[in-house]
Amino acid sequence: MSSQKIETGHQDMVHDAAMDYYGKRLATASSDGTVRVLSIGPNSQLLATLTGHNGPVWRASWAHPKFGTFLASCGYDGKVIVWKEASVGTNQWSQVHVFTDHTSSVNSISWAPHELGLSLACGSSDGFISVSTARQDGTWETVQIDRAHPVGVTSVSWAPAVAPGAFSGNFVHKIASGGFDSSVRIWEMINGVWQSETASISQVHKDWVRDVAWAPGLGLKSTVVSCSQDGTVVVWTKGKEGEAWRGKTVKDFGVPVWRVSWSLTGTMLSISDGEGNVTLWKEGQNGNWEQVTKVEM
Q1: The domain containing residue 41 runs over which residues?
Q2: Domain tally, the chain
Q3: Is residue 55 part of a domain?
Q4: Domain for residue 53, yes or no?
Q5: What value does the mean pLDDT take over residues 243-271?
Q6: Is residue 37 in a domain?
Q7: Got the DSSP string for 24-54?
Q8: Where are the WD repeats (predicted)?
Q9: Is the pLDDT confidence value at 58 over 80?
Q10: CA distances from residue 85 to 47, 88, 117, 229 in whole angstroms, order as listed
């Protein structure tokens, strides 16, 4: 699999890169304190440089275009900034929401499925998860999950809006989170209150969880993948409500694993490890995960 090199122009390490919904623009987050928006194509160009963070920016994430062009970023300064483009293609961005309630680094952000509205989950080293939702009048309402991971939250990921096997329209609000406590937890909003589904679904990881990703809901089971500083990647599955989560180790890479993500169909898993390798994996008929290819850098 070939790759395209894009010069970002950042003056320091790049921590995250996220494509927009249409795969035409790339947002990058860097230790130089900026978020950059670039075009994707044979002649990639810098379209905008977004400034507002006071320190390294860890993540950048695009919202669904149903709401317009929104981009969120989070960083070491404890800020979460929601940016909006004036109109598509103008590359004129403004800050429409700055959330500063976290008292420590915000390490991860995740937009909710569009069916649930314009809502952003954020995980912080202060141990809290915050969920900010846009109101119709342009203001934002924020609720917090207190002490989600007492020693710090490293990653958050929204579940699909429709649970496996459920009818369309019966929406659920669920979030998976990983923490410095080496655990993965599942949260569900019930009667307007966020509650822990289980105390912990992960007793497998022996070091902190670097990333979690909830797979698209195209089957009859819920699927979450987690990766850890200990080098392991685990895929967690659950069928009906009330059943226990079951973990299957994809591989012990022997080096820290930084990021995991799913294809749009949920059939392919991308894994990025501490040696700079990006590999793609698929579940075989025997239930074991098999490497399909390695992305050549």
Answers
A1: 7-100
A2: 1
A3: yes
A4: yes
A5: 93
A6: yes
A7: SEEEEEETTSEEEEEE-STT--EEEEEE--S
A8: 7-48, 50-84, 202-236
A9: yes
A10: 12, 7, 18, 36
